[in-house]
Amino acid sequence: MTRAAVFGTGNWGTAFGMVLADAGTDVTLVGRRPELADAINARHENPDYLPGVALPEGMRATTDPAEALRDADFAVLVIPSQTLRANLAEWAPLADSRTVWVSLMKGVELGTCMRMSEVIAECTGAEAKRIAVVSGPNLAREIAARKPAAAVVASEDIAVAEELQKACHTQYFRPYTNTDVVGCELGGAIKNVIGLAAGMADGMGLGDNAKGTLITRGLAEATRLGVAVGADPYTFSGLAGLGDLVATCGSSLSRNHMFGVHLGRGLTVDQATAEVRQTTEGVKSCRSVLALAERHDVDMPIARAVVGVVHEGHAPKEMLAALMARSAKSEGLY
Ligand SMILES: NC(=O)c1ccc[n+]([C@@H]2O[C@H](COP(=O)([O-])OP(=O)(O)OC[C@H]3O[C@@H](n4cnc5c(N)ncnc54)[C@H](O)[C@@H]3O)[C@@H](O)[C@H]2O)c1
Ligand SMILES: O=P(O)(O)OC[C@H](O)CO
């Protein structure tokens, strides 16, 4: 039987653990708080993140990473992107040399501008064939309700992607394989930044034309950066690109979207943080995404506007005016 250790007992760690278990994989969730692990084991429910969702009986939780990693085929990482490096310093030495590390995270590391698979490679020493990512339009609460969704499972080694695909394929969760790890990760991280912008537009009541424009030009920004760092441009028209942009920019279940809505309605960043509470990757990753773009001389005006609002104290209205006042250009990618 395939075994997976899932690090993170939040929304997506718990929901993806459920997907793996429903697909017949043996799953152990790894959390930090014993009382939450006990509740998951005793009640088959995660009362803090997914109250009312009945988890598969065989899915267990522990606070002991070594126990979870014993004989694990997959170590699935579902924690905030900015803490990954520190976490792996503890977890990596406990893993078997054959374990495949899987990132479900949608962020870019501050300071280094590294994608999560790059952080994993550096911290674990794992070669590319022992690293995979999962991305796509995957709002955890919908998946926890077993509503249908699709995703991309990417690894440079197609055989590894296919193994992971098998381990998480259920009647409601349809994973497609891809070998473009770079494109899938950037698609996931950048959609959060565009989701913040779309939320601001919604919060300001700007309407659906504005949102359609942000999604489309956001996709152009993501594709431009992706191409500059070696991704396949077609990945961005797929589930990890357009699919996730549409889901995130349109859903009140998206934390990034709702964070933007709060800002658009006039709340401060601190007030929006207090409202949303859970991991909102775009808030930090907008800066690392923009830094990566600057490093590659790629223009990302929407991402720059988001950084202006979230980190530089500009009002959403000011940034909107700046975006609209840019010089006229043709529609192409550049
Ligand atoms: N929620 C979704 O719908 C969804 C879908 C796809 C991808 N993601 C991505 O998955 C990642 C996690 O998101 P989430 O929604 O599960 O977040 P969450 O806020 O629901 O849960 C975060 C989890 O990480 C743990 N955590 C926080 N700080 C930690 C630290 N310093 N060390 C170890 N663990 C820590 C928390 O205890 C919690 O278990 C993010 O990168 C997000 O973009 C989320
Ligand atoms: O709630 P968000 O904004 O982190 O989005 C969740 C998922 O990434 C949607 O695919």
Automatic annotation (TrEMBL):
Keywords: Cytoplasm, Lipid biosynthesis, Lipid metabolism, NAD, NADP, Nucleotide-binding, Oxidoreductase, Phospholipid biosynthesis, Phospholipid metabolism. Its EC number is 1.1.1.94. InterPro entries: 6-PGluconate_DH-like_C_sf, 6PGD_dom2, G3P_DH_NAD-dep, G3P_DH_NAD-dep_C, G3P_DH_NAD-dep_N, NAD(P)-bd_dom_sf. It holds the Pfam family NAD_Gly3P_dh_N. The keyword Transferase does not apply. Substrate binds at residues 106, 255-256. Pathway: Membrane lipid metabolism; glycerophospholipid metabolism. Belongs to the NAD-dependent glycerol-3-phosphate dehydrogenase family. This is Glycerol-3-phosphate dehydrogenase [NAD(P)+]. It comes from Actinospica acidithermotolerans. The gene is gpsA.
